[in-house]
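[Meeting: bench + compute handoff]

Bench side (C.D.) handed over the final construct sequence. Compute side (W.E.) agreed to return the predicted structure before the next meeting so the bench team could plan truncations. Sequence as handed over:
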Amino acid sequence: MPTKSVLELANWNEDQELTLLLSLLGKDVSHWQDKTAATQLREMDWVRFLRLTEHHRVVPTVYLQLKTLNHPFVPAELLRNLQAQYHRNTLRMLHLQAEAERLTRLLIAHGIRVLMLKGPALAQQLYGDVSLRTSKDIDLLIAPDDMDEAEHWMKEAGYASKSGEVRVLGSWKWKDHHASYLHPQKRVEIELHWRLHPDGGGEPSFDELWNCRKMGKAAGASRQVPLGSADNRTVMTSCMYTLGSEHQFLYLSAHGARHGWFRLRWLVDIDRLAVCAVDWEALLPMMRRYGGLPAGGQAWALAAALLGTPIPEPMRPVSATRQAHRLALSALAFMQASVPAPYPIAHGSGTGRLAPSEPLHSRALAEQAEAAPSVCDTCGETAMLATSGVISITEDASNDDHSPMSTATSCAPITPAVASSQVMTRNTAAAHQPVSRTYLLSLKEPRHRLWYLISRLFPSTGDSAVFPLPRQLHFLYIPLRPFLWLKRRFSKH
């Protein structure tokens, strides 16, 4: 089934702000040069466009594209706003990069193998520049058996566990996938992974990932920005290890699918990876072996429909299945439910469209980075679709990326401008969305689906937070598991 029908069925072509955003992300800006497009640009709701850009975490790409487009109908104030966010994000990414290198050197010095996930390393690998992608934290992947020693050195480096949860029995090694740490002075969050994904699904072992690792170059802390032009940079580089290209696709497609692709940034990653040196023939048996066909097909269908991503020949049969089409439509519903509404309703009656002279309020990336982590990180992914009446994407939700509501209502300082932008209508697409557990299970192949259901019977680190027990009594978490699970479920409601 053609991927174009995915977009047509979702009626996204009627949304001119989103259409412009997708064109800029797909680098297809030629359409906006003719007279018809000029009229559309004149009627664009630039306040909503800015909110969309921030929500999808694509400020750097959009800013540089609009700057290149240099269209007279693009407001100068919008460009100044995006430029300020772009520069702040660059400093933020360089700060994260320097800290990631420091921690990596520390762990390697004590014999712990480390792979970099996402963040500045992925930005350099896919975009060639750390400033072209956003990130809120640092993700490091280590072998499960190194977790205790790595945690010790994390504490030596000044980091403290955010949750304080106790790892229960041995099930944490395959049931959970990361622990979060925070440096109180540097305000940097680290996610220390021992698995790529939660819920004990199929994935390569750390040894397999390590053997296929890729040495990537990423901009270090010595990067200099000339005063004359902040967009021209001289970069000093240093090396670190990242996932190999084939494993990178497995990881990024599964990660985006698990989160419902509610941020377009994840699809842009897939779009950039599509033109990298990937052995697509070798990837196909990996996807079959580790149950990555549903998420991979969904990723290709969405990227092709929304960004015009060319699908490599070996991947076309994966993206053309009915399952890939169905999952892509489900993801579009999640995206629509999380998108800011066209117009705020706090400015009186009528359409609510802001006058062109009104300021473009921004929930800037720097404000998100500088907000109190203890407030931001309690929201996590569980609030992703709260305003649309849809239950959370996953029971023990990971906060790999903050939800739209957690970013809007918790991370940014509450100013009159932000408060007014919070008073908005929401799209009603959630009314026909599938329940999230059904969606999660639909991403899994039958054998992994059965294992996922069985894994619900085993204790998790969340049980120790609900009902702390001495280590010698941890075996009691097995019979107590149903009661503790029910307690957490009722507490959420």
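W.E. noted at the follow-up: Strands lie at 115-117, 138-141, 160-161, 178-183, 188-193, 214-219, 237-242, 340-344, 424-426. C.D. will use this when planning the next construct.
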